């Protein structure tokens, strides 16, 4: 058994090994224990002493300013000379005009019908106003006389200054050569317009008040985190969601409580038991789309039901065709009563029952953290399948349905040694994973053991919940791709379809 583990390098471990150690003495079972860094770590890793696992650590990365985009317009100096007839003075190579490509000036000549107007060269004053890049034709000439700013482009007549009078004669001969240039002039201004600043990088904060030195401190997600990041409140550094225990990225996958990644493909429109313990039961409802080239469905978790004591908690994603981040698509109920939250980050709701149930908004819309006192904590976010996701994975998503679904993160505070379920079984101390770690897509079996008759039923074959009928019925099941695993600062898992 040991030899097999040594030969098959587990996923996420680099061949060229680097290590990290736990330096907190109070965690005796982990203190000073050398752990291998995952190969996906972009920089380095640290050890989460609570779970005794290595975790990738990212660094703050501020977006590189890209102001040099205006440099290309340097070509402008050449174009002004071509129109030298009227703006010889403008020929002075003031680098300022470059941003607005002077090529446009030829376009005015194209409108030879009004030679005076063609004298638009006077518009050179507009050089002061970079805002009208389209009318940049006038901008080429950097003459300080900005008195006739933008107005000049609109009406050539304003260039009443004496220069216009001499310009008319030359304008007639010059128009013909410029006529060819106008087309290029228009394309040139467009590049500057297209050069928009890069999107603002996503920022995250530590929301755990137990770490005052890091609480509410804004961190920038590293550029190497395409799936977003979270803050490790212990180290106060942003960590890629895909590089930490319990991460769920790319294809649907689980990272179990034992740290092993596995896939569980289910059936669309079916319900499955994710976890079942003596006083906690979690089911998930899957939506999906049939792939004609495969024998299974593409599936995602649309909603979950959490049963504890005599209470029921529901978290779901509403169906939506056109996705907008500003519209809240979360549905929350407690004991069949809707939970209403103001659409503002930090909004909070608390039950009047015991144990207490807390719901906090992590963003204005579509993201919440739910905690059942003394039992578990869940982070839930509603996300759509994007066109890019559909293109990469051949999902075949149409405009009729964006397949909005839940990205989930679980942390369990108390689990028994008999816990079961697709995810729950990986937290048993005697659990031995049956997946083929060496496979490209290690899939977990037992499809008939986890299906339930409905979202709030506890009748799966492996049910352990003592608050309802413990009879387990065998149903057919296949699980969707989901990912769950231990999280930092406590026992837990993260799941995503």
UniProtKB/TrEMBL annotation:
For the region Disordered, give the residue spans. Answer: 63-203
Pfam families reported in the protein's UniProt record: Root_cap (PF06830)
User: Which top-level group of life is the source organism from?
Assistant: Eukaryota
Concerning InterPro entries, the annotation shows: Root_cap
Compositional bias of type Pro residues: which residue ranges? 63-201
Q: What is this protein called?
A: Root cap
Q: Which organism is it from?
A: Quercus lobata (Valley oak)
């Amino acid at each position: 058994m040991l030899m097999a583990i040594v030969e098959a390098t587990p996923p996420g471990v680099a061949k060229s090994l680097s290590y990290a150690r736990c330096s907190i003495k109070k965690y005796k079972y982990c203190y000073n224990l050398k752990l291998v860094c995952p190969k996906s770590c972009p920089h380095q890793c640290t050890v989460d002493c609570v779970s005794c696992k290595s975790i990738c650590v990212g660094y703050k990365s501020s977006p590189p300013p890209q102001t040099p985009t205006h440099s290309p317009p340097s070509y402008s100096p050449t174009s002004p000379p071509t129109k030298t007839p009227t703006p010889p003075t403008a020929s002075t190579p003031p680098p300022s005009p470059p941003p607005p490509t002077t090529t446009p000036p030829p376009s005015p000549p194209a409108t030879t019908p009004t030679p005076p107007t063609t004298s638009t060269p006077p518009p050179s004053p507009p050089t002061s106003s970079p805002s009208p890049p389209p009318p940049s034709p006038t901008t080429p000439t950097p003459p300080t006389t900005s008195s006739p700013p933008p107005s000049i482009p609109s009406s050539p007549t304003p260039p009443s200054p004496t220069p216009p009078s001499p310009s008319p004669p030359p304008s007639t001969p010059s128009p013909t050569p410029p006529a060819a240039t106008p087309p290029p002039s228009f394309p040139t201004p467009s590049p500057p317009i297209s050069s928009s600043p890069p999107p603002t990088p996503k920022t995250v904060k530590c929301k755990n008040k137990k770490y005052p030195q890091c609480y509410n401190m804004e961190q920038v997600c590293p550029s190497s985190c395409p799936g977003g990041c979270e803050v490790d409140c212990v180290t106060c550094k942003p960590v890629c969601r895909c590089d930490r225990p319990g991460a769920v990225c790319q294809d649907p996958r689980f990272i179990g409580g034992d740290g092993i990644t596995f896939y569980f493909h289910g059936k669309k429109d079916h319900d499955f038991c994710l976890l079942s313990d003596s006083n906690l039961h979690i089911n998930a409802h899957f939506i999906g789309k049939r792939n004609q080239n495969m024998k299974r469905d593409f599936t995602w978790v649309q909603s979950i039901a959490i049963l504890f004591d005599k209470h029921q908690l529901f978290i779901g994603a509403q169906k939506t065709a056109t996705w907008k981040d500003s519209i809240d698509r979360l549905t929350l109920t407690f004991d069949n009563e809707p939970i209403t939250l103001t659409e503002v980050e930090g909004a909070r709701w608390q039950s009047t029952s015991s144990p207490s149930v807390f719901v906090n908004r992590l963003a204005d819309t579509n993201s919440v953290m739910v905690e059942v006192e003394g039992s578990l904590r869940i982070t839930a976010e509603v996300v759509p399948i994007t066109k890019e996701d559909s293109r990469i994975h051949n999902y075949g998503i149409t405009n009729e349905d964006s397949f909005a679904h839940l990205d989930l993160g679980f942390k369990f505070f108390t689990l028994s040694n008999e816990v079961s379920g697709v995810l729950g079984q990986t937290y048993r101390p005697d659990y031995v994973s049956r997946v083929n770690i060496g496979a490209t897509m290690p899939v977990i079996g037992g499809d008939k053991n986890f299906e339930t008759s409905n979202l709030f039923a506890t009748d799966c074959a492996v049910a352990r919940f003592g608050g309802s009928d413990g009879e387990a019925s065998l149903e057919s099941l296949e699980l969707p791709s989901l990912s769950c695993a231990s999280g930092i600062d406590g026992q837990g898992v993260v799941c995503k379809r």
